[in-house]
Amino acid sequence: MSDIQEATNQLLDVNLHENWSSIQVTESGPRSESEHLQVTIGATVPTGFEQTAADEVREKLGSSCKISKDRGKIYFDISVESLAQVHCLRSVDNLFVVVKEFKDYQFKETKEEVLKDFEELAGKLPWSDPLKVWKINTNFKKKKTKRKKINQNTDSHILDYYENPAIKEEISTLVGDDLASYKDEKDESSKEETHPKMLKFRVTCNRAGEKHCFSSNEAARDFGGAVQDYFKWKADMTNFDVEVLLNIHDSEIVVGIALTEESLHRRNITHFGPTTLRSTLAYGMLRLCAPQPTDIIVDPMCGTGAIPIEGATEWSNCYHIAGDNNPLAVDRAANNISSLLTKSQIKEGEVSWGLPIDAVQWDICNLPLRTGTVDIIVTDMPFGKRMGSKKRNWNLYPACLREMSRVCRPGTGRAALLTQDKKCFTKALSGMGHVWRKVHTVWVNIGGLHAAVYLLKRTPQAFVHPSEQDGERTPW
Fold first, then answer.
1. Name one GO molecular function term (predicted).
2. 385 lies in which domain range?
3. 300-305: average pLDDT
4. Which of 171, 373, 389, 471 is least surrounded by CB atoms within 10 angstroms?
5. For 424, phi and psi rounded to 5 degrees?
């Protein structure tokens, strides 16, 4: 059973007939009213890959998608019945249901007036449908968590290299009084059945733009206070049930309710390295290359294996090779593959036949692959920051591109290469025009670094080894 099918079944199993505050769902008719809700979903995605994410939404959900002028966000309309499929999208990091969008919000001139408007705004918003969606989503997540609890071995506090915001923005969270810690889950769930519990919440303000007379902290404080008064909820920074989002980008304001507690890009990796790549970014790079059935896809500098693992789970009809010269990296990649297989076996309840992927230790400049046998190369090249050095890149990049051109199929081969050392890469690529043609460049922000993904196409010209140019022939 596919992830989407399983998730859909889980969602449809959710008991929607609970008493919860003012939201009452009755058994009138074959389907409850909540199941027919049409809502707008917002999603954060790796910056630069907004179009890739929009294409995935159209392909898998059949929904039209709007790319926000605030980089790294997309919006699309769905029926709540499709909520489970939304969680299975491979290109999105975080999800939220939109309460209200103001495309051209008119800020008052003084800080006091603006903050007063934020206070009044809380009571004017259409909260009802988004909160119904939040409730359905919460029940769906509880069921999913119970099934996965047996295999929870990822440290949720690990922050990888690519965890930082993609653009410079202020992020502030309303901090409320500390509340008593949660009691035992069984006591809590039994209590919920008889008495709807007092909801705890927090407000997070993401603000980007220069022409604001207020800080994100002030906006979160005043708007959050008004939300608290309106709903009679309790503010709690850590053990919150509802996270209300106040996204401000220049004159655009979007109020939403978070549907994810942890970024969806943390789905495959359990053994992290110094520069672990987000799974969502890995998906975007692979999708740029449009993998076809039976393609051989290679990541010659795989690190922890994020790219080939993402490829093997999404494009299982291709064959994926993860390689690296560092034995520790190869071990991490192999362990991540093993963990993924274990999860798959537990989920399916049967022995898995494995994934179409291998991990190999090799030299990037002398790959143990035959000439012209690889269809796609996707890799995260060393930036010269945490891995390698800028000086070493001047020799490494030309050698890498030359060897990649050797193993890649002339005419049809393609490559998606990520690097922050753009000057060095551009210089190296300029000397490879006979074998590589640049098709597209995607500008991305990674951990505060301005990087680029270069999409290359292999020219029809056959590879000629440097030694052959001197009259010698080296068999491959």
1. RNA binding
2. 279-465
3. 93
4. 471
5. -65, -40
Indicate the pLDDT class of residue 467, thresholds 50, 70 and 90. Answer: low
Residues in the chain: 476
pLDDT in tens, 40-55: 999 999 999 999 999 9
d(CA 53, CA 68): 12
Position of tokens 């969806």? 264
Q: Tell me, what CATH number does 298's domain have?
A: 3.40.50.150
Q: For residues 2 and 9, give the distance between their C-alpha atoms in angstroms, rounded to a whole number.
A: 11
What's the Cα-to-Cα distance from 319 to each of 177, 337, 343, 401, rounded to whole Å? 53, 14, 20, 22
- Please identify which residue in the block is written with the tokens 């509802």: 242
150-171 tens-digit pLDDT: 444 433 333 333 333 333 445 5
Rg (CA), the chain: 25
Per-residue model confidence (pLDDT) at position 351: 55
Cβ-count burial 298-307 (b if 16+ within 10 Å, e if not) = bbbbbbbbbb
Q: For residue 309, which of 58, 8, 455, 90 has the smallest C-alpha distance? A: 90
> Could you give the CA distance from residue 339 to residue 270 in angstroms, rounded to a whole number?
7
Examine residue 459 and state whether it is found in any structural domain, yes or no: yes
Residue 448 is assigned to a structural domain of this protein: yes
Give the three-state DSSP class for 281. Answer: helix
Among 243, 281, 237, 234, CA closest to 261:
243
Q: Do the domain assignments include residue 331?
A: yes
- The end-to-end CA distance of the chain, in Å, is 42
Tokens of 387: 């891995």
What's the total number of domains in the chain? 1
DSSP state of 100: E
Residue 414, both tokens: 């393609």
364 CB neighbour count, 10 Å cutoff:
18
pTM here is 0.78
CA-CA distance, 267 to 3, in Å (whole number)? 12
Distance CA 191, CA 233 (A): 18
